[in-house]
Design a protein that fits this description.
- This protein has 246 residues and is α/β, with parallel strands linked by helices.
- It has a single domain, classed as NAD(P)-binding Rossmann-like Domain (Rossmann fold), CATH 3.40.50.
- It contains nine helices and seven strands; from the N terminus they run E-H-E-H-E-H-E-H-E-H-H-E-H-H-H-E.
- A seven-stranded parallel β-sheet has the order 3-2-1-4-5-6-7, sandwiched between helices.
- Helix 1 runs parallel beside helix 2 and helix 3 runs parallel beside helix 4.
- The chain is globular and about 45 Å long.
- The model has no long low-confidence stretch (mean pLDDT 97).
- The structure holds NADP nicotinamide-adenine-dinucleotide phosphate.
- NADP nicotinamide-adenine-dinucleotide phosphate (NAP) binds next to helix 1, strand 2, helix 4, strand 5 and helix 7.
Length: 246
């Protein structure tokens, strides 16, 4: 149950984060819809939640910018006091073969996908610790478990989230709060749209269930991890990948 829980979802203007925010809102949570560039889309998500059973606000912050995330935290405190659940979902890809990968291609992905999770967790750590339903949920990738051609930066960041999750689980345990991670398979969002059709086809052939994930394939799992029912589960990496081996 996530009713009346205050949940922050980073990168909730589009894709997986959008789906998670809408689902949490539909189940009665108060949702902070974080976005970086897609202001209009973030407000559409907020309007949809407010039209239903939840309530929501949109807050702009680039998760790679610690000061911006701290300002977001202050804005959220003004609105809700504190939060219960943080979903670190914001992420990007800058795919290149390693020989062509420049330091800035590496940094952009690490700064957003991994340091972004550090920044948001740092900002909301105290809130999660003192909540009676403190939950940290990190969204990572099956590719971090397998490795993936052209994604040295992405797989490094996403597998970093595994260690981060397991350590935060230990450090949050004293306050009875949990940290878990979802290792997502290929999901139909703008991120996957960037991949060439022929490459997509080859990937699809390697998925035992024979299809890419819909955003809705993960939202129920995240709601479970965010809710009271998952209270004895922590430090886990859940593969939602259509049977693709991690
Ligand atoms: N799609 C997949 O196949 C797949 C597979 C495995 C893991 N994942 C992971 O799932 C997460 C969501 O991916 P997606 O497929 O939904 O991607 P997406 O459709 O490209 O959406 C990315 C979201 O992240 C936000 N974002 C990007 N940079 C940000 C920043 N610096 N600060 C705040 N928000 C930022 C974007 O917000 P704005 O548009 O407002 O900038 C957008 O809402 C990512 O962490 C990704 O690594 C995805």
């Amino acid at each position: 149950m996530v009713e009346r829980q205050v949940c922050v979802v980073t990168g909730a203007s589009r894709g997986i984060g959008r789906g998670i925010a809408l689902d949490l809102g539909r189940h009665g949570a108060s949702v902070v819809v974080n976005y970086n560039e897609s202001e209009e889309k973030a407000h559409e998500v907020v309007d949809e939640i407010n039209a239903g059973d939840g309530e929501a606000i949109a807050v702009q912050a680039d998760v790679s910018d610690f000061d911006a995330v701290t300002e977001m935290r202050d804005e959220v405190r003004d609105e809700y006091g504190g939060i219960d659940v943080l979903v670190n979902n914001a992420g990007i890809t800058v795919d290149k073969k390693f020989v062509n990968m420049e330091p800035e291609d590496w940094s952009r992905v690490i700064d957003t996908n991994l340091t972004g999770a550090f920044n948001a967790t740092k900002a909301f750590f105290n809130d999660i610790s003192i909540s009676s339903n403190g939950r940290l949920v990190n969204i990572s990738s099956v590719m971090a478990q397998r490795g993936n051609y052209g994604q040295a930066n992405f797989t490094a960041a996403e597998s970093g989230l595994f260690g981060f999750t397991r350590t935060l689980a230990l450090e949050l345990a004293a306050s009875n709060s949990t940290a878990n991670c979802v290792a997502m398979g290929f999901t139909k969002t703008d991120m996957l749209d960037k991949v060439d059709e022929d490459v997509q086809e080859k990937i699809r052939d390697r998925i035992p269930l024979g299809r890419f994930a819909e955003v809705e394939d993960v939202t129920g799992i995240v709601r479970f991890l965010a809710g009271k029912e998952s209270g004895y589960m922590t430090g886990q990496i859940l593969g939602i990948n259509g049977g693709m081996r991690g």
